[in-house]
Amino acid sequence: TPTVGVLALQGDFREHIGVLRSLGADAIPVKRPEELARVSGLVIPGGESSVMDKLSRLFGLAEPLKAAVASGMPMYGTCAGLIMLADTLLDAINGQQTLGGFDLVVRRNAFGSQLDSFETDLDVPVLGEPPMHAMFIRAPVVESVGPRATVLASLDDGRVVAVKQDNLLGTSFHPEITGDTRFHQYFLDRVAAA
Ligand code: GLN
Questions:
Q1: Per-residue pLDDT for 113 more than 70?
Q2: C-alpha dihedral sign at 175, 176, 179, 181
């Protein structure tokens, strides 16, 4: 089986590694370019995207990560990880940059302080039944989806919270902490097919 990585600069990378291993994947933490070079797919976890951005540049990973996206490596970004992959970021702080690649406009902390965290059941047609129990934690929202990207799920009010584009997958929420492994399996299937 191919080795997959989880970007381990910051955030809840341990939870992702646990889920991927529970699905039988050979999953390793990625902190350095040498580790990135060993993997056939990468999960970018939740956390704080502005810190992840800073650390990725400090650790010399930003350029290798951009090259990996450009080469078509399958990637799955959850929450802060989705922010990292977006071409355009709204409400960035401290000169924050993104890796880009995903034809999206994403807004950080889009649900405001009134609704920092919430849970809901989400229909995700590509995953079938039952709906996914989704947990949102200071979550971003996809404000617009460019022609290269596809919507996989939206909230009842229409806000887009799961997307795909070729080998890229992104969710505003955190399947790694709710025990539903279908998005991780979907990612592993992309890795196997790539
Ligand atoms: N608010 C965080 C950010 O902007 C994301 C939160 C999360 O990953 N749970 O990076």
A1: no
A2: positive
Cα gap 43→30, rounded to integer Å: 9
Cβ atoms within 10 Å of 18's Cβ, excluding its own: 15
Q: Any catalytic annotation for residue 176?
A: yes
Whole-angstrom distance, CA of residue 155 vs CA of residue 87? 22
How many angstroms separate the CA atoms of 146 and 1, rounded? 33
Give residue 160's pLDDT: 98
Q: Which of 16, 35, 48, 174 is catalytic?
A: 174
Annotated domain spans of the chain: 3-193
Residue 56 three-state SS:
helix
CA distances from 55 to 154, 180, 185, 187 (A): 31, 29, 28, 25
Specify whether 143 is catalytic.
no
CATH topology assigned to domain 3-193? Rossmann fold (3.40.50)
